[in-house]
Design a protein that fits this description.
289 residues, alpha/beta, 5-stranded mixed beta sheet, 58% helix
């Protein structure tokens, strides 16, 4: 308020600011609900979640990312019912995420486990180096993972086609499987736990090799939620359910605009004008197709 008075010579009260927040939230509601409705029809969705503060308690900020779309929601838990509330009882596309158990409980179809998380965990085992098995296991797995990513980068650079990518990955996957089976009964509990965990999710590790639009990492969701994480560090969270809605709607619309290379501020102005004049809201779903 002091900034508005000092820079713009506008004297505005705290109540007016709160009223404007509520008006913006209502103006963005149609775009927010439209994006939510479009998500279950997407062929690939990346999902992640992070902590958030609201009314003095810890809640969870979820992000769902599809090509040209992003959707945020705040929920009191990390359970599978949040996924069901956004993607429906059954999601028929490919779900990309980390190995958090809620994703497996919800989605029984095709999944892609994030290799960036796997690499971090294996590097953690290597740096801890509590046993000879830790050194040998991490060195073996990281070298095979490096070869796998080299293949994928060659494919993205159009040096390989999809068929060649899959064929050249066959011996690589066989060596990875051999490594995991060799160390699943290791005397080092961290190595054994990692090996068993990757064998459990084996069918979810290589979806990206055979399906268009699927990346080997969950970076799309992690990069998408990063601005919210930075915002969390300098704000006090939310103090009301209405504030939670405003946060989710602002993050959803602004991130979707950025994905579509649109100016978020221009869209906010357009949405607010449409709301005040009773006009149709500017769609972010139709323009993403």
């Amino acid at each position: 308020m002091d900034i508005f008075k000092t820079i713009f010579a506008i004297d505005i009260s705290l109540g007016s600011v709160c009223n404007l927040h509520e008006e913006v939230s209502r103006a963005l509601e149609p775009s927010y609900e439209e994006i939510k409705k479009a998500l279950p029809q997407q062929s690939v969705v990346n999902v992640d979640e992070t902590g958030w503060r609201s009314m003095g308690r810890c809640v969870w900020l979820w992000i769902f990312v599809a090509p040209s779309l992003a959707f945020f929601t705040l929920a009191p838990s990390r359970r599978a019912h949040v996924l069901k509330g956004v993607l429906g009882d059954i999601f028929r596309g490919i779900l990309c995420s980390d190995r958090f158990s809620a994703y497996g409980r919800y989605h029984k179809g095709l999944r892609q486990i994030c290799w960036a998380h796997v690499i971090r965990e294996i590097k953690g085992i290597r740096h801890a180096c509590r046993s000879p098995d830790a050194a040998r296991f991490s060195r073996w797995m990281l070298s095979e993972i490096g070869r796998m990513f080299a293949l994928f980068h060659a494919f993205r650079s159009e040096l390989l086609d999809r068929q060649a990518l899959v064929q050249k990955s066959v011996p690589l996957r066989a060596r990875m499987s051999n490594c995991l089976q060799t160390y699943e009964l290791s005397v080092d509990p961290d190595v054994a736990r990692m090996a068993r965990g990757l064998l459990k999710y084996w069918n979810c590790l290589f979806t990206f090799l055979e399906h268009d639009g699927v990346e080997p990492t969950n970076n799309a969701a992690e990069r998408g939620v990063r601005p919210a994480v930075q915002w969390r560090k300098i704000c006090f969270g939310n103090q009301s359910p209405e504030g939670e809605l405003l946060t989710a709607r602002l993050l959803t619309v602004t991130k979707t605009c950025l994905f579509q290379r649109k100016n978020p501020f221009h869209h906010l102005v357009e949405a607010l004008n449409a709301y005040r004049c009773g006009l149709a809201h500017p769609s972010l779903v139709n323009s993403s197709r």
